[in-house]
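Weekly structure sync, notes
Attendees: PL (lead), two postdocs, one rotation student
Agenda item 3: pending single-chain targets
PL asked that the sequence for the first pending target be pasted directly into the notes so everyone works from the same version. It is reproduced below exactly as submitted, 121 residues in total.
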Amino acid sequence: MNRKMKISMAKADKKQQNIDAGVMSARFPDVASIVISMRYKQVGVLEPFHRVVNFFPGSYAVFKINCLNEGCVGGGFDFSKIINTMVRDLKNVSRGELSCKGCGPDADFSHLGYEVTVRYA
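Predicted structure, written out during the meeting:
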């Protein structure tokens, strides 16, 4: 299978995952927004790389953020359990660290600190 076919299949798979997950308003009707703020820790760089991802009621309820490492294979950062627990317990903020399972521990952008904020309707 060539590269073009693999990319096409991956896009189709991601699209199906989004459809299967549904939208946030159906899954979490009491949630107005979710914000994931990430600080990537890159080896040899003093300032971390910041990234923010926002989810709104019309967003797909898929909380897996792709890894920024070019060499990553099937990894990423899955916030699903964190967000499900927060919503279940009506928590507003959660902080912690995650590592990408598709990268080696020393790979660029394979480790991050995060803050998840949930705003309820």
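Discussion points:
- The chain has one domain: 23-120.
- The longest strand covers residues 31-40.
Action: rotation student to compare against the earlier draft before next sync.
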